[in-house]
Amino acid sequence: MKYHKIRKMDIANGPGVRVSVFLQGCAFHCKNCFNPETWDFDGGLEFDDSVIDEILSLCKDDYITGLSILGGEPMHPKNIEGTTRLAKAFKKMYPNKNIWAWSGFLFDEALKGKEVLQYLDVLVDGQFVEELRNPNLKWRGSSNQRVIDVQKSLKKDTIVLFCE
Ligand code: SF4
Questions:
Q1: Which of 31, 67, 107, 135 is 20 to 30 A from 143, alpha carbon to alpha carbon?
Q2: Domains in the chain, ordered, with CATH?
Q3: Do the beta carbons of residue 145 and residue 101 sit within 8 Å?
Q4: pLDDT, average across residues 119-131
Q5: What is the pTM of this model?
Q6: Cα 13 to ligand 1 centre (Å)
Q7: Is residue 87 predicted with pLDDT exceeding 90?
Q8: Cα angle: 71, vertex 143, 33; to 5 degrees
Q9: Is the CB of residue 27 less than 8 Å from the CB of residue 76?
Q10: What atom in ligand 1 is closest to the CA of residue 141?
Q11: Which atom of ligand 1 is nearest to the CA of 38?
């Protein structure tokens, strides 16, 4: 798996001050995607265990609220194993910090039953749809996308939206 970049202090993608990792590779190619330079699965930098260690180290300070995992597409079959390893390692080291992830795949369809969900606090799911774009929405670009409380949704076996 490859990654595009790491943001050491991000206040735009999830609550509080976060470390964000943008993974490389997305096959959805949504019209007016915010990050088309992440589409190429062969671009970017190698994502290995040393990168996971670097991300974990960047998250150690108390002012870092959590980790955000974006794309590209973190849940594409080429990326989901690496995303799972990262999320699992993060939750083991920081059980009281949260993980937010963004994916074009749907929680209750392609992602149903995937191990990675065990480690996520919030998933913003659904592809970006230009016709449904609304700049006033928080954490998402178009109104079809859902900001899902993953752990509550797994427990109740139905979609529970995240409320601040
Ligand atoms: S899923 Fe996300 S990264 Fe992929 S094309 Fe759509 S907006 Fe871009």
A1: 67
A2: 2-156 (3.20.20.70)
A3: no
A4: 98
A5: 0.97
A6: 15
A7: yes
A8: 35
A9: yes
A10: 7
A11: 3
